[in-house]
Design brief:
Length: 158
């Protein structure tokens, strides 16, 4: 692997913030690595005890809600699309189209690091189909197939 590839396959937090419209508390990716344009990416989320959802899910035995694990995978896919297609978040957004075959294998708890491996299984124009797997310490925690597409943002009337 060349040094150029090694540098370019990582996406830091600042670039995540530039490429995705999500913000705290709904931004569920801290950084990404192993980016291969139009092919694959690995998103990383460090789960901390002070995540807002742990106050109610569940205070005595905190578990990250499954829908947020799927959302983290989807955001990882959107990051792959955004960087591959160089989507400008000012006038376009990447939206979920479908979710299939979701399975949860291991609960996500404070202190876990999620590694969301997302691969493109099909791409046509502005729509991508993905297969995502989320791992904790090399153990499968969740998996899903999902689709997303680039949508033009309607500008509010001024």
């Amino acid at each position: 692997m060349s040094d150029v590839t090694a540098i370019n396959d990582r996406i830091d937090y600042a670039e995540v913030m530039r490429r995705l419209p999500h913000r705290y508390p709904f931004l569920l990716i801290d950084k990404a690595e192993d980016f291969v344009p139009a092919t694959s990416i690995t998103g990383i989320k460090n789960v901390t005890h002070n995540e807002p959802f742990f106050q109610g899910h569940f205070p005595i035995d905190p578990v990250m809600p499954g829908v947020l694990i799927v959302e983290a995978m989807a955001q990882t896919g959107a990051l792959l699309m955004s960087k591959t297609m160089d989507v400008a978040v000012a006038d376009k957004v990447i939206m979920f189209m479908s979710i299939d075959g979701v399975r949860f294998r291991k609960p996500v708890r404070p202190g876990d690091q999620l590694r969301m491996k997302v691969i493109v299984t099909r791409a046509r124009g502005d729509a991508y189909k993905f297969r995502g797997e989320t791992f904790i310490d090399d153990k499968l925690a969740a998996e899903a197939e999902f689709m997303a597409m680039v949508v033009k943002v309607d500008q509010p009337a001024t």
